[in-house]
Amino acid sequence: MATKFKIGDRVSWNSEAGIVSGTIIKAHTTDFNYKGYTHHASDDDPQYEIKSDKSDHIAAHKGSALTKL
Questions:
Q1: What SS3 class is residue 11?
Q2: Most buried residue, 34, 50, 66, 68, by most Cβ within 10 Å?
Q3: Global confidence as pTM
Q4: How would DSSP label each residue in 21-33?
Q5: CB 13 within 8 A of CB 20
Q6: pLDDT attached to residue 2
Q7: Are 50 and 22 in contact (CB under 8 A)?
Q8: Is 32 exposed, middle or buried (0-12, 13-18, 19+ CB in 10 A)?
Q9: For residue 53, what pLDDT is reported?
């Protein structure tokens, strides 16, 4: 089972630009469309929307890609 996070948690993740940090703003437990792609999520493996600390960029990631800060 993947690590679960909650809204407001600060996390970091690896991106093309290196390590990025941000704050979780939304948790998904069902499949959802984001930036033209269907992201698969479930109660056991949720996906999270995270707002970057350095920009207004929003990213969507599974918990396995995130590290709590």
A1: strand
A2: 50
A3: 0.88
A4: EEEEEEEESS-EE
A5: yes
A6: 56
A7: yes
A8: middle
A9: 93
Contacts 24+ apart (CB under 8 A), 54-59: 54/20, 58/25, 59/13, 59/15, 59/20, 59/22
Long-range contacts from 31-36, C-beta under 8 angstroms, 24+ separation: 34/60, 35/60
Distance CA 60, CA 38 (A): 11
* Displacement of CA 26 from its chain's centroid (Å): 8
Tens digit of pLDDT at every position of the chain (69 positions)? 457 899 999 999 998 889 999 999 999 999 999 889 999 999 999 999 999 998 889 999 999 999 999
Q: Report the alpha-carbon distance of residue 36 to residue 25 in Å, rounded.
A: 19
Contact 50, 57 (CB under 8 A): no
Q: Tell me the pairing of strands 67-68 and 58-62.
A: unpaired
Provide the Cα torsion 18, 35, 59, 43; round to 10°.
-130
